[in-house]
What we know:
The structure holds two protein chains of two kinds.
Chain A: E1 2-6, E2 9-10, E3 13-14, H1 18-32, E4 36-41, E5 58-62, H2 72-85, E6 88-94, H3 97-110, E7 113-118, E8 128-134, E9 139-145, E10 150-154, E11 169-173, E12 184-190, E13 202-206, H4 217-226, E14 229-232, H5 234-238, E15 259-263, H6 269-275, E16 280-285, E17 298-301, H7 304-321
Parallel strand pairs in A: 1-4, 1-6, 4-5, 5-11, 6-10, 7-10, 13-14, 13-15, 15-16, 16-17
Antiparallel strand pairs in A: 2-3, 8-9
Chain B: E1 2-6, E2 9-11, E3 33-35, H1 37-53, E4 56-63, H2 68-77, E5 81-86, H3 92-106, E6 110-114, H4 125-133, E7 137-147, E8 150-157, E9 160-167, E10 170-174, H5 189-197, E11 200-203, E12 213-218, E13 227-229, H6 234-243
Helix pairs in contact in B: 2-5, 3-4
Amino acid sequence: MSVLVYLESWEGKFKKNTWEAATYAAKTASMLGTEAIGLCIGKLDEDASEAGNYGLSKVLHLEGDAFNQFDANVYGAAIAEVAAAQSANTVIVSATFNGKALAPALSIQADAALLSNVVALPENASPFSVKRGVFSGKGFNVLTSDAAKRIVLFVPNSIAPEATGGNASVEGTSAGQGSISPVAVKEVDRVKGKIPLPEAERVISGGRGLKGPENWGMIEELAEVLDAGTACSKPVSDMDWRPHSEHVGQTGIAIKPNLYVAVGISGAIQHLAGVSASKTIVVINKDPEAPFFKAADYGVVGDAFEVVPKLTEEIKKFKAAN
Amino acid sequence: MKVLVCISHVPDTTSKINFTADNSAFDKNGVQYVINPYDEFGLTRAVWLKEKQGASITVLNVGNKETEPTLRKALAIGADTAIRVEAEPTDAFFVAQQIAAVAKEGGYDLIIAGRESIDYNGGQVPGMVAALLGWPFVNACAGMEANGDTYDFVREIDGGKEKLSASTPFVVAGQKGLVEEKDLRIPNMRGIMQARTKPLEVKAPVEAVNKTQTGAFSKPAPKSAVKMVDAENMAELVRMLHEEAKVI
């Protein structure tokens, strides 16, 4: 029995929340009284032994032509095969877009229960239970499984990565040499140098109050000084002021950053559904009656065009002084 | 071409969410139900396939009798037939097996579902159906164009998009982008009248097990009162974010 964790990489590089997944697996393994093993798939330009620093005892590396492009079924089946070879009865996957795509296939191939939208470390080892988000941020539910095997798909930013100073050996593995996917990837278009929203620790978001796409410069400046991702409300994405991939809310992306700054967003219930899990919410709005203030930790009533540049200046000063 | 569109019956997006007194279940009192918004994008995309390529559309729900008005609405929007599998959808694995069984029996060319339902947010069923059938799977699909039997897709990925192509049969888990919000169809009177006489078949579920059990529900802890900061004093906001919230 062991815990296996999928260590996701893109274009040979690990992602920020790869180490969150490693920590999640290490802590789950310690709760279950076993060891945590990492699994990397595809070409790597980075040293996977770094996973030892986050509590994994060893890392397996699976390479092959079938894994040069992502495919939900191919990756899911390969992870299931490695899990079986390692006698892993628990597999941890971070709920990135790829993680969410492969986890259902993995659960079918491994004949395992799938516990998804999990927002914290497992609550109980026997019966195995987790806390998951339901009703788009408006509730939580304890989900239990008595199945012999289970997959835990946890929401990025649920726990902090914890460096423990350990070491992990890296071994190649031949398990799961999958078949070539019938889905052809023709083009991958990833915005360079930007933090993907689901894993951003800080997010600056703009709404209709910004009056037009030409005014996003100040949002991007604030995001830059805070090392934050940028997001927007649904009307802004519907009007094509910003790309749909930035839309946070009930029908967009649900996020869970440490800091969410909402500028010119009134706070419709559907928007709150996607951001209410944020640790700290700052609302900047010129309307003191905006419903978002009720869901905020800090509120500023004022004109965004004056407040945001001032806030950016103050953060620059703060960073210079610290 | 036969298209199967999976329809979840979910509380309206503006619903206030409450749980029963013992927190063992969702309190359905006074809640309006709608077609799951992610499924609605898929349904409209299927109607386009029907109009442009001559597809026939079957909408499918796994649920009890109270979901029938939602299926009728889907018929009014443009689906040709409806199937309801008579079972309480308490577990994704159970539901996926029901859908896979209907798909095998009906000889569909493609299945469109929403990438998640807005009630339980599991996001599991479409990928499970694809794996059970051994069909290609495109998750978080934000674009789909037919090219004969080959389809081109746009899939949302972290920090960007991916362009894919695959041949039928396949399973798509859709979202906005399959069609835009402004393209969503609202049932008109003629559609509503026609929907009343369109076939709605009720099927018994195939034998399947649940792999998970739902326990206690809870609501997020109430937020403490908002601290208002003077718009002229952003230094104070930065101090609070650093010292109190510890986020910068």
